Amino acid sequence: MPNVSIIVPFYNCPYIQQALESLLNQTYQDIEIIVVNDGSNQYTELLEPYLGRIRYFEKENGGTASALNLGIKQAKGNYFCWLSSDDRFVENKIEMQLQFMNLSNATISYTPAEIINHFSHTVRNYFNVTYKNRHEFLKGLMRGCTINGCSVMMKMDVFSQIGLFDEELMYTHDYEFWLRAVQTYDFHYLNEPLVQYRVHERMGSKKHEKEIMAELKFLRRKYKNNLNNMIMKEQRG
User: Fold this and answer.
1) From CA 12, how far away is CA 40, in angstroms rounded?
2) Strands (DSSP E) along the chain, which ranges?
3) Residue 207's pLDDT is what?
4) Is the pLDDT of residue 204 over 60?
């Protein structure tokens, strides 16, 4: 049985080969790579050289959350990671983060990310927000999502405890999941950029900015009372 399952949602992405190469070249090899084709009609030929080294599933287009959930249901590993098909893992990402989680006795961990461009050149650091304590982390999470989803590693049994990603949220399913998870688990931060986050013209966060803002507003309102209660509890010590 693989120790770490890495889910790769794929939808019409020309960068998928770079994503898969970054996984196949990991220094930690006790992994399974699960690619979920979310109804793509472009670039599917790029997957063909990898079919013998990945687990591959196809489904009708339903969004990233639905692709992640299908992969999670098929996963055999003890730990979950997710990689967007236009991003990359640093080659020792799994090894370093797994070691960190074992030493910290962590259930969920996350890291900073680098921004890369269309040519895979590093532009700057991104999602490198550090917090002094859980109180500050909760206040930051109330304002918005400061966690890069592809930087997260967590134990697979989290899903059996709090459920899967919300498939009704097309763009902020990760943020909603963190808002749920933080009510049960601590998030441990490994201050090492282990993900390369690609910014390009085709990315969803640029094309769907208005829809993303609407979902964020909805989620902040939905979880406001829960987070306020948790923040007050932290203040009281």
Assistant:
1) 5
2) 4-10, 31-38, 55-59, 79-82, 88-89, 108-110, 113-116, 122-126, 153-155, 187-189, 195-198
3) 64
4) no
**Unique residue bearing structure tokens 């993303």:** 212
The phi, psi pair for 203, rounded to 5°, reads: -65, 145
219-237 pLDDT, tens digit per residue, is 999 999 999 999 999 988 7
Which token pair is 192? 């090492």
* Alpha-carbon distances of 14 from 2, 17, 146, 199, rounded to whole Å: 28, 8, 27, 13
pTM: 0.94
Length of the chain: 237
Element (H, E) at 224: helix 209-236
Residue 79 — φ and ψ, nearest 5°? Answer: -125, 150
Given a cut of 60, whether residue 135 has pLDDT beyond it is: yes
